């Protein structure tokens, strides 16, 4: 065997030894693919409040208890017990989703001068600060989707609270499937979001 043949053989062997772990890692990754159905929330496309074109607002990420601060969809089976919807999840942690959809809803209204999140460098007039108090399916006495969000409008220049209100909506699920639960939650959230946007436009 020529020296060149030995060099080629050793090179092929080294490449094969590197490729095998990579192949194993790829196959292992396929075996751990998520099996949950993943859902998103929608945002209203319009708002009925007055125009506030001269105002720019900042939407902070909502606060929430740990049970709601995840991708899991909450099922409340009693006043003191919660479970999570099997084989289903949100596309992101719930507070981040709510923040993104609120921003989208303000933008869709076309009635504010600007809207953004922390870090985007806007010259802010007001901050919208929210807390997710409920975002769940309640099963007692017929299943219902319940969304409750507390909101504050804070003057960014002096820190004073311009307004504070709790928004809540309950929607019958109309079925016991994962899809029925998520659709009901989406309808309840869309209604609450519309109310928050209209209230903000009226308040600023």
UniProtKB/TrEMBL annotation:
Residues 1-24 form the signal peptide. Keywords: Signal. InterPro entries: ABC_trans_aux (IPR005586). It comes from the Bacteria. Residues 39-197 form the ABC-type transport auxiliary lipoprotein component domain. SUPFAM superfamilies: XCC0632-like. This is Cholesterol transport system auxiliary component.
């Amino acid at each position: 065997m020529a020296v060149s043949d030995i060099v080629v053989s050793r090179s092929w062997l080294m490449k094969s030894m590197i490729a095998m772990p990579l192949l194993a890692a790829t196959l292992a990754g396929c075996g751990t693919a998520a099996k949950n159905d993943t859902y998103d929330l929608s945002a209203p496309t319009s708002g009925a409040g007055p125009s506030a074109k001269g105002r720019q607002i900042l939407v902070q990420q909502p606060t929430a208890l740990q049970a709601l601060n995840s991708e899991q969809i909450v099922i409340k089976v009693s006043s003191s017990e919660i479970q999570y919807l099997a084989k289903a999840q949100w596309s992101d942690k719930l507070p981040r989703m709510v923040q993104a959809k609120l921003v989208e809803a303000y933008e869709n209204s076309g009635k504010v001068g600007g809207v953004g999140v922390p870090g985007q460098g806007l010259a802010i007039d007001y901050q919208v600060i929210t807390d997710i108090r409920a975002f769940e399916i309640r099963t007692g006495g017929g299943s219902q989707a319940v969304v409750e969000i507390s909101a504050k409008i804070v003057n960014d220049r002096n820190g004073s609270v311009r307004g504070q209100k709790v928004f809540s909506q309950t929607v019958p699920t109309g079925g016991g499937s994962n899809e029925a639960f998520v659709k009901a939650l989406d309808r309840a959230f869309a209604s609450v979001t519309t109310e928050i946007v209209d209230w903000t436009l009226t308040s600023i």
